[in-house]
Design a protein that fits this description.
Elements lengths: L9 E6 L2 H5 L6 E8 L2 E9 L6 H20 L6 H16 L9 E9 L4 E6 L3 E6 L2 E4 L6 E2 L2 E2 L12 E5 L7 E5 L1 H4 L7 H11 L5 H13 L10 E7 L9
Antiparallel strand pairs: 1-12, 2-3, 3-4, 4-5, 5-10, 6-7, 6-11, 8-9, 11-12
Length: 246
């Protein structure tokens, strides 16, 4: 099993949160879905609000992950440690000559490799949930950070803690949800499976322009009282038959 060069198996959307709109601040979330000889890849990032150029850091890490995957996963399953090291090197190169500490960002990735295996990896807050049918598992169940600050790329004097899982033979209809805090913090553990079902059933069949429009509208009308953060989510799945793309 693999993801063919013309098969896109993901969709997603990202919106600016109420707090940033109110203060005329740009969205600090970013995401990217792409495919190639390696398979298909989705990246979601959330720049740390305490850093002046975190938006640039979030956008740069999407490019950095893609470059690392193209370099290491086109022909073979990548070693996670080597891949994560390459991502950080690429990310710093993307940002130069800026100080990475001013561009700190979380990052989540889902790679559906051409071999059929799935690699998920994460630094910092946010959500990666994966599974098939009614079985849904979170990659990270506890917060990783220092004091009041989440773990992230670019923190001075700290090596980011990568959490990852390689699944060499996932079941059919395997799904991966990636979401930043603005979405993840409002999802109870028991609601993850139904939420993914909702996304798959209500959005996946739609034509891409309509799907994106409706998904953006739902994120902007987020029902949690007092919500303020940027919101980004993406759904990535394994089967070859889908024709969906963002």
């Amino acid at each position: 099993m693999g993801t063919g060069p013309t098969t896109r198996t993901w969709f997603g959307a990202s919106v600016c949160g109420p707090a940033h709109r109110r203060h005329h601040v740009a969205k600090q979330d970013a995401w990217w879905g792409t495919h190639g000889r390696f398979g298909s890849l989705v990246v979601v990032a959330d720049g740390l609000g305490s850093r002046p150029h975190s938006r640039l850091g979030a956008v740069a890490v999407c490019r950095a992950v893609h470059r690392a995957v193209r370099g290491l996963a086109d022909h073979e399953v990548p070693d996670p440690s080597r891949l994560f090291a390459r991502i950080e090197t690429n990310w710093r190169a993307e940002l130069a000559p800026r100080d990475p500490a001013e561009c700190s960002t979380t990052v989540m990735l889902s790679l559906i490799h051409r071999s059929g295996g799935v690699l998920v990896g994460q630094v910092g807050d946010g959500l990666i949930a994966f599974g098939s049918g009614h079985a849904t598992e979170r990659l990270v169940t506890e917060r990783a950070g220092f004091g009041n600050e989440t773990d992230a790329l670019g923190l001075p004097g700290r090596r980011p803690l990568w959490r990852s899982r390689w699944l060499p033979s996932p079941p059919s209809e395997f799904r991966v949800l990636l979401a930043t805090d603005g979405v993840a913090d409002d999802l109870r553990p028991e609601s993850l499976g139904p939420f993914i079902d909702h996304l798959e059933q209500e959005f996946r069949p739609l034509p891409p322009p309509e799907r994106h429009r409706r998904l953006v509208a739902e994120l902007r009308a987020w029902p949690t009282p007092g919500h303020f953060d940027d919101k980004t989510l993406a759904l990535h799945w394994t089967n070859r038959g889908a024709s969906a793309c963002h």
